[in-house]
Amino acid sequence: MIDIKGKKAENSRLIFQSVLLRSEIPAVLLCVILFVALSIFDKNFLTVGNLQFVFRQVVAIGIVSLAANNVIMSKDIDISVASIMGISGMTFAMMAQAVGGIILPLAISVLIGCGAGLINGMLVTKLRIPSMVATLATKNVFRGIVLLIAGGVVIVVPASARGISTGFTLGLSNPIWIFMAMILIFYILNAHTYWGRNTLAIGGNRHAAIMAGIPVDSIRLRSFILTGLCSGVAGAILISQVGQLQATIANGYETKVIAAVAIGGTSMSGGRGSWFSPVIGALLIGLITSFKSVLGISAEYDDLIFGLIVIIAVAIDAVRRKAEKKEVRV
Amino acid sequence: MSRKKLKKFIFGNGRHELMLIGILIAELIIFSILSPKFLTASNMFTSIRSFVELGIMALGMTFLIMSGGIDLSVGSMLALVSVTIGFIYQAGLPLGAAILAGLLAGMLCGALNGFLTVYGDIHPFVVTLGTMSLFRGLAYATTGGNAVSKYPDWFAIFGGKYLGVIPIQVIYFIIIVFVMFILLKKTRLGSYVAAIGYNEQATYFSGVPARRIRFALYILSGVLVAIASTIYTSRVWTARGNSGMGIEMLTIAAVVLGGTDINGGKGSILGTMLGVFIVAFLENGVVLAGIPSAWGSMIEGGLLAFGVVINMKFHADFQINIKMEKSKSNG
Fold this sequence. Notes:
The structure holds two protein chains of two kinds. Chain A has helices spanning 4-20, 25-41, 48-57, 59-73, 81-98, 103-125, 131-150, 163-166, 174-192, 194-204, 206-211, 216-242, 253-264, 276-295, 302-329, and strands spanning 155-156, 168-169, 172-173, 244-245.
């Protein structure tokens, strides 16, 4: 006789364990702790307006992280995202001033973002330049273009075009709606399509993926284009939040984006991660930012904090991988 | 001559340095046309003064990239070491002790990078991207927006004095280049470095302590950055948190342009030096010709990508390299 009850208990224990051992759990726990701490320390924290403000701040980071997550899962990296955000933000501001409206400037800035992503992807898949070097180079080139065109001028985004990030729909801030839509899209892409599965397969073992007949280069190319697209959207949102164009806009965002992805639990060595990691990572960064302002820590410490986050996240990942290796050996 | 032969003639072994010299001469000609001040002795010495730091850091980077690693944090490390020297001196300690502390700081930074990369088994690019922010943040946090620019006169022996017409740091530079050249070409360590970059596992199974050597290379890079930072601080006579911004990109561009394979396994000191000359004269020439500096950074980005592609073409085992890259992702 099979002891079904015992099996069930064993099963539920395994499920419990596998949930607890998920790589997103540390970030979720940290989020809860920070959330509770903030609502105790800051009387104004738990109001709808303030919560919206906190999350609106991280929408730009969150949207880019969702796509950069895919690039990282397939064992590539993209550090040109901040410069792409700069280029598309500049396009958005200039188009909004020249043409007006929201849809057309947004469409064009997203197209520009896609083009930049395509260039990255081509350098990586066609010319076979390692992604880190290719995007390090394009980071400089794209930022150079922004500096050349917008170096000396100040362009104010018209109020009509700022609706994309300052307006409200059904009581929720517009960027939060966009973020939620993006999360839904990436949830479907990553968790319910071959594409998401293949991305992980490529990151886990590229050679095996090639042998298995997965169109590796095409998927990597599409990941880069998608990152460009999302950086385009995020650039437009960011510039309409700021309200005027500066050539240094979004400078240093690549560290924040990578910090969000890494702290969320996606492995920096590729092959492991989920759509949920960048979401929780971005939320965590939002909470850390507001915690920082509650404690009165100035922006000078930003580099220090985000650098520490990346280092801690990759160290946790390294420890986890070592533990798993041991388990497999036994 | 068949097409294949022609290709081999142009891209054959040993012609990489010739091509670099060609690029360098072309660059010198273009900039001396654009600006009459460019090809003068005084400008040459000024620009040599300002690129010794870049050259020293590129030497460490050559070793790292050859062994399959990379270090993005060199610019931030430069700032952190400079700030360490300045602020420890300001705190009342003698300058000699402050310089030693700076050297120690560089070693510790390199050791942190090396520890996480080698013993944590994390890709060096991710690690040093994190430490790039971390070191910069530490430098900012220490200075709090201030700068230290009061030093005793003898501090100038590192980067402010001249021997006749020759800036003193050029002497140090030549010595360091010579030492590194011997280290790479004439010692066992040099061949180990290349072997590790080509195939770490095989090297390890041949009885070479591959991990320890990789760890040591990060510390070596940290020490070289500390030396560069001392020279830099002495040259500009001030220690502030934002020095060395973006210099990691120049360093990597110079090394890669010099023929060091970004996937590891190949590289030369002579090539790196030529790469440094090309990048440094570009920086200097763009300023003198009155071209917006944004063009300079764009051209440098382009040079980096160009360097990687041209390396692949130049290496006779181009096809093998691609296979290596594919099989590397197994591990």
